[in-house]
Amino acid sequence: MKKIVIILACSLGLTNLHAQTEAEKNTVNDYNKWSVELAGGVNKPQSPMTQDYFTSTPSFWVGDLGVRYMFNNKFGLKADFGYNSFTGKNNSVDFDSKYYRADLQAVANLGRIMNFESWTKTIGLLGHAGFGVAQLENKDLHVKDRMGNFIAGVTGQIRLSDRFALTGDFTTIVNASQDLTFDCACPVQSRGFNGVLFNGTVGLNVYLGKNTKHADWVVISQEFDSSALENKIADLDALVKKIPEKQVIIEKPVTTTVVNDKDLLKEMIDAKYYSVYFDFNKATPIENSTAALDVVLTYLRKNPSANLDILGYADQVGSSEYNEKLSNLRANNVKTILEKAGIASSRLNVVAQGADTSIQKDSEEARRLARRVTFKIR
Do 71 and 167 lie in a common domain? Predict the structure, then answer.
């Protein structure tokens, strides 16, 4: 009998895993990743400037055009091109110089990293930094100065729709090997990073792609919605009430086996024969995992003195902090299901295990095994 029970448990686990393949493929790329950024505004060249040459604070004009690609909802890369005009104002000596640049920048979606979704769905924040090349010129003086630059800034976002977001950006540019002052009237004596420029712009993000949302606004780890499992829980309650007092049902498609040894069932639960599985980056159990919940719930109903540790796991894709949060959310959602089925919260203990490092990270099949919740009877 013990061998039969073990075979049935293994069959149940394999059935649960089979349903995950297509669902994982559908959740990886279900948001847009490309966007175009247009912006204009004001600038202030801080230094170097020739004596008696200066601009207004702030002064016009700045133009910026960028193309951005997000690898996921938190990190991306963008190429952008900028234009600055510097002109003398008020009591300055008259001058008119232009600054052109091209940069490649890394982008961090600070709104997702700092969980803005917990308090707003319309405000976002991006951080960006990178390197590029630039040219400063004054056509009246017939001079040009080519240099490298380091650029960094922050971009606030207001979501207007799934296709557009209003932006406000503050950027600092530091030039390397700038040979002329920004007014182009004098050479610069020092070398290295010697030119500092501030830009402030407002603009528009235009999101490209066939999907509804862009990576800027997608929250991959979604909060649990139990509505899809309400009917299954009701069926579960009805099933439990029909079970004879000293019997445990181990469910397998088509057949049902009755086992009278509750110690054997506890041993199998503790040995992780019964696990609840999840799709990639999801915290809602896949539907086939409810069979394993049937067994655990049955045991708890028939053994009211028993308590349960609910151990949540994630695969190794993503940061440790993210996987810790995801594993905790999975375990808490399973706890919610058991509570709705009538198990007291005091009997249930959630343990977030983070990423399961015992599973091979590079194997897709192994990663499906890692995305689970297991149980320990106490």
Answer: yes
Task: Indicate the range of 15-29, 62-76, 192-206, 354-368 predicted with least confidence.
Answer: 15-29
Residues 337 and 293: beta-carbon distance below 8 Å: yes
CB 114 within 8 A of CB 71: no
Are residues 69 and 93 part of one domain? yes
Q: Domain of 302: which CATH number?
A: 3.30.1330.60
Number of domains in the chain: 2
Residue type present at position 31: Y
* Same domain? 11 vs 84: no
Six token digits for residue 39 = 């912006």
Highest mean pLDDT among 69-78, 186-195, 272-281: 69-78
Residues 6+ apart with CB under 8 A from 126: 107, 108, 109, 110, 111, 154, 155, 157, 216
Please report the pLDDT score of residue 234 as a whole number: 56
CATH number for 165: 2.40.160.20
Report pLDDT for 235. 55
CB neighbours (10 Å) of residue 337? 23
Judgement on whether residues 206 and 257 belong to the same structural domain of the protein: no
pLDDT tens by residue, 326-337: 999 999 999 999
pLDDT, tens only, 184-197: 999 987 778 889 99
- Are residues 119 and 45 part of one domain? yes
Whether 72 and 191 share a structural domain: yes
Range of the domain at 252: 2-28+220-377
pTM beyond 0.85: the answer is: no
In a shared domain, residues 197 and 246: no
| pLDDT more than 70, % of the chain | 81
Tally of CB atoms within 10 A around 331: 26
Judged against a pLDDT cut of 70, whether residue 340 lies above it is answered with yes
Beta strand 248-251 with 256-259 is antiparallel
Strand ranges for the chain from DSSP E: 34-47, 59-70, 75-87, 96-109, 123-138, 143-159, 164-176, 193-208, 248-251, 256-259, 276-277, 308-314, 348-355, 372-377
**Residues making up the chain, counted from first to last:** 378
